[in-house]
Fold each of these.
Amino acid sequence: MNKKNLIFILIIILSFIISTSVFAENINEKIYSGKEFRNPFTDTLAPKPETAAGSNEATNVDQVNQRPVQPQLTFADIKNQIPFSLNGIISSNRERVALLNTGVNVELIRGNYQKDGYKIIAIKKDSVIVENRGFKLRLKIGGEIDEI
């Protein structure tokens, strides 16, 4: 092959590569326009409607002094945030020992135990009773969690 044919083939290959990359960019912009993703840092509560311009100063002060509404805490929230799981229970005549997997290691619990606000208040035959922010739940061996 002579030099002219080689240069011609090289130019065709380069133009093909450049055109496919531009084509892929155009398709990517159409697929991922950014509209389908929601911003997790925005306020999820609906904004309060603005009052009329003629409202008195006392109601404006009351609105400024109001605290924002706290989100309602549910059993599912507590259940999903529990920082440990129950691997087993060792029973003897006098006491029960719970084997808790904390994610880092397995701990032997004989009495009360607390981690991240979750407090174990009782060790039963096949479960432990956990309390957090007014909710009591039963953590069973194997990971099942029930509300008490």
Note: The chain has two domains: 1-35, 75-147.
Amino acid sequence: MNKTSLGTLLLLAGVVILAAVAVLAFLDVGTWLLISVSAGVAGIALYLVHFWLNRDLRHLWKRAEELKPQERKLRFGELRTSELHDLAQKLNQALASFDQAIGHLAVHRTELRLLLGTLEDPLWSQDDDGNVLWANAPFHKLFPAFDSSREQSYREIIRDPELQEAILSSGNAGEQLPLSLNIAGHSYMLSSSRSVGNRRYVFILHNIDAMERTARMKKDFIVNLAHELRTPLTAIKGFTEAMQDSPGQDHTRHQKIILSHTNRLIHLIRDLEQLIRLESISRLEASQIELKPFFANLSLILEPDIQAKELSLNVELEEGLDRMVCDPFRFEQIFINLVQNSLRYTDTGGITIHVGKEGENTVFTISDTGRGIQNEHLDRIFERFYVADNSRNRDFSGTGLGLAIVKHIVVLHHGEISVSSEMGRGTTFRISIPPLAERKNESNQPS
């Protein structure tokens, strides 16, 4: 489309008026007639300029009225007046930049909500009228009356009077209220923050029970680690001093004991390193494995330990169950650790690994004919350094980390592990693994 500038239109109008005046002057008409005709010609010329401009202006006005949040892709089209066309193009550029900024904000908003959704503590935002604007999954779980599809006041959702009062008197931004709230059998502490302009509030309920449990687990871990290190180091120190005090005697027995405790320390450090690596990764290097060759190789690895205790190891594969996707290296560690754990407490009989299907999941049971575990210990058996029977623990070579490692590997496979036991008859571990897609995590190679 050819563009005409506003200056050109005005120039043409001026030329028309001057031409009309010149013609009338040449015809020697009267003064009043000359003025009247000139004014009429000028009016017509200006009307034509107005008509030309009005078409473009009406287009701009119409487009401006159509601009709404949901019409972010709307743009101004071609205009006949060059100045207005240039203005429209500048507006198009501004709209494109605005659209891009809105897109970035939408992405950041989604990322922020995903991040906040991973928090384990209940978190929500509300406006200055007390209406809840957004909440994460733990809030939904703690307060099932919340309905995100409609406007609700926090008083409608949160029925606890003490918490309602705490929200009402939350005070300044970032305030952490020094009161403990008991909600659904758990202790919480409320924190709040306020946005600029005081029109939005964010609240979070800190689970004090979970915080205390985490602190207790850290303390127990340090105490247990110190104990696990102190025992072999004390023995090594004692036997070394005994050898120094009697240099002329045969110290073969002392040397064997020192070597045994040294190996125990090496195994402890190895298991600690392995546990730390497992806790630092979020994905495994998964690939498809053939189950028969996998368990045949596992039997070869465990054969010396099985034969040393004169026990048996049986693997039962349900018909048609030939392969699965897992991290082969880590998955092998599950069965090595579980079988070795069973060997420590099994004197007769043997160990059976059964592999079957339950819906889409592959289910493994590892059963032994050992001494069993008392019921009060079953809930804590996967904790680091937890010992189910202190009276006999020192007689065995475990580090107390094997079952914790097993649980971490199972969780990384998005699976579940449980244990059942009967005193005098044995223990059974049950592992359920859902279908996994093959994937490669190059940043976390097994070592």
Note: The mean pLDDT is 76.
